[in-house]
Amino acid sequence: MKLKTKSFDIAEHLNTPEEIRGFLQEVAATGDESDFIHALNTAARAIGMTEVAKKAGVTRASLYKSLAEDGNPKFITISKVTKALGCKIAVV
User: Fold this and answer.
1) How much is the pLDDT for 91?
2) Would you say the C-alpha torsion 34, 39, 45, 48 has a positive or negative sign?
3) Which of 61, 68, 81, 90 has the highest CB neighbour number within 10 Å of its CB?
4) How far apart are the C-alpha atoms of 43 and 81, rounded to whole Å?
């Protein structure tokens, strides 16, 4: 019998605002800028890109492009997406 495997996608396991917030906090504390952008992408997929795009005031296509692996979002986009995810950026 051949074993079937499936790629792990953390977005499938982020089910609550608290889990998303904790995930983003951990990445912000331990990762770099590209890790945080990737984490925003993951969190947005967990909620739904269309919903996050609407809340952030950007198009769905623009959101995908900005948060893609080779994307280079402006700070305003990162800020809007973070707020749309129910979080805020803080300097401590």
Assistant:
1) 86
2) negative
3) 81
4) 10
Quote the pLDDT of residue 46: 97
Q: Residue 78: left (phi > 0), alpha (psi -120 to 50), or beta?
A: alpha
Query: Which among 50, 51, 39, 52 has a CA at the least distance from the CA of 9?
Result: 39
d(CA 29, CA 36): 9
> Domains of the chain (ranges plus CATH)?
32-92 (1.10.260.40)
Tokens 């994307």 found at: 71
Can you tell me the distance from the alpha carbon of 26 to that of 9, in angstroms, rounded to the nearest whole number?
A: 17
Residue 12, judged by CB atoms within 10 A of its CB (0-12, 13-18, 19+), counts as exposed
Q: What is the pTM of this model?
A: 0.90
Residue 61 has φ and ψ, to the nearest 5°, of: -65, -40
